[in-house]
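Fig. S4 source data, part A: sequence.
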Amino acid sequence: MTARKLDGQALAGLIRGRMAPQAAEFSRRYGRPPGLAIVLVGEHPASELYVRLKLKAGREAGFRADLERLPEGATLGDVLELVEKLNVSPHYDGILVQAPLPEAVGDGAMSRVFDALAPEKDVDGVTPSNVGHLVQGRPTFVPCTPLGILELLSSEGTTLAGQRACVVGRSEIVGKPIALLLLQRDATVTVCHSKTSDLAAACREADILVVAVGRAGLVRRSFVKPGATVIDVGTNTVTDPSIATMLFPEGHPRLSLFRERGSVLVGDVHPEVADVAEALTPVPGGVGPLTIAMLMRNTLRAARARVGADPTTGE
């Protein structure tokens, strides 16, 4: 068996293509484009890349998408002051604070920032009120990566009701919310984490396996039930030759790419899983592009809500 590729890149392109005329109509009707502000603190290389992609996608879709940058030495007070300024700005319908914040900002800083965001501009669904609505099954804004995963499963016609799902990872922006979303669609959900005993056995029970831990190649063939659908959320930059050769056999084009560039982007799922899974998201080109598309969708919803229009239709 060779797993069918779940092409998030193609689906994201379709979604953004449908969104562009909706953003143009919003701009025509209300005299301004939907506005998104992205806060980036410090110089984290992966965050720099993600932010560039988000800004590019927003601008291509007709949004106002601006970067609000703070230096590496910024304090928590600096971040909170900027968030408050954006909360009251008439130019922005959505605010995203790119994680992670530098360690120097302090322990618990991300939670303090989440608390400070205006819920109506919280387009990644991280404020306590938006999380609470999600827990109760009446979400306002859902975190973008879980929302993208759900969109992908829906587009593929994947049955969720009655299926066993396993989520590896319990983060606030991926693991916990995707577990809730699957549960609300009548899947039977197991959440695994660093303290789970016999992780492989728990994963092997799953018809739908979602992996989001940030550890290259963690999930091997022995973890996966034959015929399962596997969603790989991991984005890991590998620079260690021993890890690259563990992931890719001699002669594999990704190994050649590693040797040429000195690094390669991989997921949390070992490539050998393609031999047993029925469907698998690639890295890159799987969940990542959908995360960005859902950010644009949430921002458009927020913009419509701010002008008193129906968030889903704009009417």
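Fig. S4 source data, part B ends here. Residues 144-288 form a domain with the Rossmann fold fold (CATH 3.40.50.720).
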